[in-house]
Amino acid sequence: EFLPDCIDYWREFNRYRFNLKQLLPLLPANGSLLDLGAGNGVMSLALQVAGAQVTVADNWRPYSRENTDQEKPSMHHMGDHDQILDRYRRHNIRTIETDLLEGSLPIDDETFDMVIIMAVIEHFPGSPRKILEEAKRVLKPGGILVIEVPNIAALRKRLKHLISRTIH
Predict the structure, then answer these.
(1) What predicted TM-score, i.e. pTM, was given to this entire model?
(2) Which of 28, 48, 135, 147 could form a disulfide with 115 if both were Cys (CB 3.0 to 4.6 A apart)?
(3) Which contiguous run of DSSP H or E holds residue 69?
(4) 90/15 Cα distance (integer angstroms)
């Protein structure tokens, strides 16, 4: 019910399923999880439905209605700023609207059992050191930090490059 019918979701379905299969056994029952750079929230929503207590942190301003579909159409395939935040609220997911590039999170120390950063740090223009230090700070002792970065050498990306389409 919480996932829109869009091609990007279905194209990434196996990645989402693989990640859930890997993450859920690592998370304590009713464990607390912070998704840094949650974007449209597919993973966050699925983890919440699976029983995690999810908090998401991101800068959703680029998804605002002022940024028209002509500027960046791929950003609007799962809703605009208000629709995304409303989707989180309907599923009792706490949202923290913050700029991850600033590196300071408005979160108490040792709050979460798990912090996930999925397909985010490759977008940082410089070192992700600040956000990684913040992730460590908000993790409980023994907590788990999960980082996922896309495979730039994936066949789909190589084919795009061959036909002169950007892979970034």
Answers:
(1) 0.81
(2) 135
(3) none
(4) 25
